[in-house]
Amino acid sequence: MAQRILALAAEEVPERLQEALQSLGEGELGDMVTTQALKGKETAALLRGIFKGSPCSQPSGVLRRLQLYKHCVPLVESGDLHLGKVSEIIGLLMLEARQLPGHALAELATLFVDVIKGGSLSNGKSLELFSTVLTALASSKESLAYGKGELNGEEFKKQLINTLCSSKWDPRSVIHLANMFRDIPLLGEELQFVVEKVLRMFSKLDLQEIPPLVYQLLLLSAKGSKKTVLEGIISFFNQLDKRQKEEQRVPQSADLEIATMPLDQLRHVEGTVILHIVSVINLDQDLGEELIRLLKTEQQKDPGRALCPFSVALLLSVAVKHRLQEQIFDFLKTSITRSCKDLQFLQASKFLQDLFPQQYDVTAVILEVVKNSAFGWDHVTQGLVDLGFSLMESYEPKKPFGGKAADTSYGLSKTPAQQACRLGASILLETFKVHEPIRSDILEQVLNRVLTKAVSPVSHFIDLLSNIVVSAPLVLQTSSSKVTETFDNLSFLPIDTVQGLLRAVQPLLKVSMSVRDSLILVLQKAIFSRQLDARKAAVAGFLLLLRNFKVLGSLSSSQCSQAIGATQVQADVHACYNSAANEAFCLEILGSLRRCLSQQADVRLMLYEGFYDVLRRNSQLASSIMEMLLSQIKQYYLPQPDLLPPLKLEGCIMAQGDQIFLQEPLAHLLCCIQHCLAWYKSTVHLCQGTEDDDEEEDVGFEQNFEEMLESVTRRMIKSELEDFELDKSADFSLSSGVGVKNNIYAIQVMGICEVLIEYNFNIGNFSKNKFEDVLGLFTCYNKLSEILKEKAGKNKSTLGNKIARSFLSMGFVSTLLTALFRDNAQSHEESLAVLRSSTEFLRYAVSVALQKVQQLEETGQTDGPDGQNPEKMFQNLCKITRVLLWRYTSIPTVVEESGKKKGKSISLLCLEGLLRIFNTVQQLYTARIPQFLQALDITDGDAEETDINVTEKAAFQIRQFQRSLVNQFSSAEDDFNSKETQSLITVLSTLSKLLDPASQQFLQFLTWTVKVCKENALEDIACCKALLSLLFSLHVLYKSPVSLLRELAQDIHACLGDIDQDVEVESRSHFAIVNAKTAAPTVCLLLLGQVDKVLEEVDWLIKKLTSLGSDTSEDSSQASDQTQALEKGVILQLGTLLTVYHELVQTALPAGSCVDTLLRSLSKTYAILTSLIKHVSAALLTVGWLGSKNFFPICYSKLTVTPGSSYAQNWAAKVLRDTKPIPNLIFAIEQYEKFLIHLSKKSKVNLMQYMKLSTSRDFRINASMLDSVLQEHNTEDAENEPDNNQSSTAEQTDENQEPKKKRQRKK
């Protein structure tokens, strides 16, 4: 039969063809098509023949065509046919579909919907036909039966799509369906149905099927609904990431169906999806713009949902397109700083923490992206690198004009800008570790910035470079040419940059001979440079090489002071260079450095400060270095035993014209000799296995030095100030050459005395004679020190109260203090009594300790040996703290005899030292605070480190200082020491930061602080300020301080009285600290400062409320609960604050800062109330009502004074004449009125019933004053009455100066 139909179709006789087809039943027609299709022969020709014999003009033809379509759709989906045959059949059916009438198309489309619902689609090929049918149906103008009514083609299509999207889809056919909808013209509403349905299907698909579906969805988004598509994709992967984290946190997941999601599979799928989105954005720029708009909007509502690891990775991948890069990086940087600010804001307030228990941290999210990018996300890496550098450059340390940039590398990141800069460095470091191909690029960019940013601070880039080299030292070998090129520019860089750079790349010098040789060439040239910085750079480089290239046989040093040691490169330098080569190399460098001993003082100074470290790291160079130092000191040493003074000071200075310069820092030279000799005697003598020749040679210079130092000590004690041409009559002014010379001499002599004090104490072994020598040297030092202070005081110099930079080492200071205050050994008692007898010496020892701690706090290191070794510094800090703590708590200041001489008592110096140490430890040694607190607790010295409870240990120390503070408060008025009390309160404030706010100890400390403020009528302004600041800082970490503020405001009101003298204020005192001396301005300004902080919190909450109010996501119920909690918080805060203002606006505050601050604060409050009533909510009407009923009339009475008490008139006249904030306050009140009227209309509640109508501020006549003026001037003519009125009421109407202010506002 098939052959007959084919033959008839070829004969071009349609009548016979139609007869033949009519003779076939429905089943026969289908069987014939199936048989022919399975044979694979002439199927298309048969179908064309059937179509030819079934014209659409005849009902029978349409019916036959429908039968054919209904049979072919299941046939092509059966999977029995070859794909080529299927495409051929579908193509033919699609061509003929447009000829079908509307009702046939509708029936065919309904058939397709039933097929999709039944889930019988296999390859989805028939869906191409479905799209053609729907397209043809949409253009049909025919009325089609649907249910009981009729619809046109477009409406029928819409109903079909709605039905389709509401039904269940087979997960296997989702991709085919998404592809199909691309070919159908869809209206906006229809497209939204489809997109939402496809997004809902994500969770039902296998993970591997998501990327192709996303791609189809993105192509579909070209029609519209871009926001919905992007939001759905980001939300889906955000949920998957959260579930994955949950599974990692709880490995034994109870829900076994959800568990078992392989991490690597998820990351690869996410990477593929990101690639798809980026490729579509390349074709459709609007999609990229929509992505940025979406995330900006979402970030206002919920930052955690907007910036999740997936969306950040997506943004960074898109950022590679330069057109969008600036927008994306600006958005990310803003988000990062905002997140850091919000975190700081939340951490400072327990009230906010309770409202927002889950804190979002964008920095953790971005670092997670770096970690995720290890799963083949190469398209993200460039964006990460660009973002890292952008953050480091945008938020780099700022250099003040004419000053040195604050180096924060050793401290904690405090400001959001510092945190953002640190985040940039972390991104680059982690990316460097994870992605090998991009390492050389990162390294090159870092080196370029170190070179090109010579003017601005580069410490953050050097720290990054150092960390990079530590993480992968051998990577530098592949980039050695870039490092060598950097070396060529060393001479032009600041010395700090040079030192940091050389320390960072030091491991490379050990494994690359070419780099080392190129560095030596550069340094040798720099030594002869005209530029001082270049010569200093050469010295720094040579000292670094000497420290790190050991001569074989050198002792291993366990006290390495450098942060970067040889262990970072697992390479034996002796495998590369034999000992002879190293020795020759080091001696050659020493030869170059010997030339530097004849250069400027700054260059020599660097050498003297660096030799000690070289010796410790390379002990075989000891003899060469010691000989060099010996020959240098001999130039200034006078060997004659009776000659005074023992050193030629005139050789240390140089004159150029009428200017005097220091040529030889003699004290530093002697200091270097003293430390090197002490190290040599303590270390090298331990190894006596050296050759005899060497021993004899070594003993020679050792003996020379000892004899020299002994002689210098003896003669320095005998010397008078006149021997150095220094006495009280000498000129020390810095404006004359003689004065400069005398200052240089004095500083050198004081330094020499300090060096000799340390030397004699160390070698004295608690000998009484040696300690007498120490005291003799100190006498010489002290005389000069007193003269310099006296002269500086006369010149009104700021240096008057500062002692010169001490030459004592930190280690010696800790040893000296321990001996002076804590050494109870019987054998030492007699000798130590010599030193203890001098109060000046004890004060000096504590003062130097204070200076060293201050230097450590400000720069992260100290002068002298081990000054750059954090571990040694920490140990010394612990020792010093133990001594100072014992000394302060054992001997109170009251008991101590301060003597006749001026100056702080030793106990007070100890307290200042403790305060600095507690600050320094929290800044530099945050991770080691438990060990520090344990070191202070002598009774618990053997406890294991893991058992240390920081809160308990800190509370123990706090109790000691609490006792001291209570003693101060209970002492007689004459014995009260204001400075000590302030320091004690500051110490308590510093230690309180170590307490856990949720602990019982914190609550006890807060309760004690409240009790102290309530019971002590403290009249000292500074102490009152410190104590209240402590109270506020503690209270905000426990709960909201508004109730505390209300009580303080009531106390101020009771203490200062009411603005209307006729009103008697109820005498109720909550806090004794609020009294006549402290109430204004001290307590009032502190109170208003705290009120402003609460207002900032409320303002922040209102912004959160506004963003939550615009959130229409699925979690609307959760958002509603959070909104209610926020509204309740705002009501409680503002309601109580209004009662605070209620008290303050009635208080007779003295005109000046208090009134100005109060008026500014009122303006802020009205601005916040205005923004609050814009956020319409029934609950918030309470605050609006409170603001209008209790507060508004009184506030206005401040601005509108009627004749009452004379005090009120005078107060108002003065305040209103002198105060500028009044126009701003009036404007804020009027804005509040305006929106309150709108809210009243909207809520149908009369919120204006307690509001006073605004005063017309252009002109006002006071009637009563007018009457009195008229009576006094009866003689004047009636026509002049207005003038009289104006002149006589000028004082009263001056209260606002309204006309002028109003005009200014209109401008």
Automatic annotation (TrEMBL):
Signal peptide: none annotated. One of its GO terms (cellular component) is DNA repair complex. Residues 1-53 form the FANCI solenoid 1 cap domain. Pfam families: FANCI_HD1, FANCI_HD2, FANCI_S1, FANCI_S1-cap, FANCI_S2, FANCI_S3, FANCI_S4. Residues 64-281, 380-543, 807-1031, 1044-1266 form the FANCI solenoid domain. Coiled coil: none annotated. Residues 1270-1307 are annotated as: Disordered. It comes from Aquila chrysaetos chrysaetos. This is FA complementation group I. Residues 286-372, 557-789 form the FANCI helical domain. It comes from the Eukaryota. GO terms for molecular function: DNA polymerase binding. PANTHER family: BC025462 PROTEIN, FANCONI ANEMIA GROUP I PROTEIN. GO terms for biological process: DNA repair; positive regulation of protein ubiquitination.
